[in-house]
Amino acid sequence: MNELSEFQSRSQESLEKIEIELLLQGIYAWCGYDYRGYSYNSIKRRIWHRIHAEGLTSISGLQEKVLHDPYYLKRLLGDFSINVTEMFRNPSFFLDFREKVVPMLRTYPTIRIWHAGCSTGEEVYSMAILLQEEGIYDKTKIYATDINSEVLKAAKTGLFPLDAMRKYTNNYIKGGGRRAFSDYYKATAQGVKFHSSLTKNVIFAQHNLVTDQSFNEFNVILCRNVLIYFNKPLQEQVHELFYRSLGTFGVLGLGESETLTNMKQAGCYEEIAGYQKLYRKIK
C-alpha cells in the first residue's frame, strides 16, 4: 500500500468515527438514549448492519433517517439492544447459585432480586424456577429491567420457541433442576408458554443502565453478558450503580466473560464462586 492509499484509509476511518460519534450524540440529544459509552467495534457493526438492511450507503444517511423518522430510530435501537440469551445459560452458574447463594437467602425475611438487562426474559424465568424449587420464591420480588420496551413485552408473555426446549432442558438438568422441566410449561400454537405462577412476583420495567439511577436496595443483582458491550468508563459507571443498589452482603452475578478485576469497586466484594462470577458485597 502506497502513502496515498494509507492516508486515504486513515482518513476514511477517522471520518467513519466522526460520523458514528455524531449519530450517537444526535440520538442522545434528541431522544435521551445514550449509547456513547458502548464498545466502539460492537456499535459500529450494528450501525452498518442497519445501513445495509435499510438499503442506505452511509452513516450520515442513516442519521438523517433516524432523526426524522421514528420507525428508523426504533429499528436501530433494536439493533443496539443485546438480546442473546437462553434459559439456564451457563448451567454451572445456576448450580453454584443454588449451592452457595440460596442458603444465605433462606435467612432473609424478604428477598429482592434485580435482573438488569433481562432481554426477553429467559434468565428471569430460570431464576423463578430455581427459587420455586428451593422454596423461597414466595418471599421474593424479582425486578426484571431492560432498555428495550419490545423485548420486555416479549418477556411478559412467557412464550418461547418449542425447538429451544431440548437445549433449555439440558441446561436445566445441568443447573441442578429437580423436576421434569416440562412441568413448567405447556405447548401452544404460538410456541411453549411457561406457567403464569413463575411471574406472579416479577415486575417487568424499562430501565436504562446508562442514564437511570438506582430504584431500590437489592439482595441480588444479576447482570450477565451485558457489560462486555460497554467501554471501561461506562462499565465503571454501571458497577457504581450496582454497588449503590446492593445491600450489605448482597450478591452480584456477572457473565462468564465479565469481571470485577480492575474496577474501582473490586475491593468492596469477595468471591463466592470466582469462576462463575458470583461476588458478595462486604463493604
Mind describing the biggest β-sheet?
7 strands, mixed
Name the CATH architecture of the largest domain. Answer: 3-Layer(aba) Sandwich
Rg (C-alpha, Å) = 21 Å
Q: What is the general shape? A: globular
What fold name goes in the CATH topology slot of the largest domain? Rossmann fold
| Structure classification | alpha/beta
Spans of 5+ residues with little confidence (pLDDT < 50)?
Answer: none
Order of helices and strands: HHHHHEHEHEHEEEEHEEE
Distance between the termini: 56 Å
Strand content: 15-25%
**CATH superfamily of the largest domain, please?**
Vaccinia Virus protein VP39
Question: Which key phrases capture this entry?
Answer:
single chain, 283 residues, alpha/beta, Rossmann fold, 10 strands, globular
3D architecture notes:
The protein is an alpha/beta fold and 283 residues long. The protein has helices spanning 3-31, 40-53, 59-68, 70-80, 91-105, 122-133, 149-157, 165-174, 232-245; strands spanning 111-116, 140-146, 159-160, 185-188, 191-194, 202-206, 218-223, 246-254, 269-273, 278-281. The strands form two sheets. The protein has a seven-stranded mixed beta sheet. A hairpin with a 4-residue loop joins strand 9 and strand 10. The longest helix has 29 residues, at 3-31. The chain is globular and about 65 Å long.
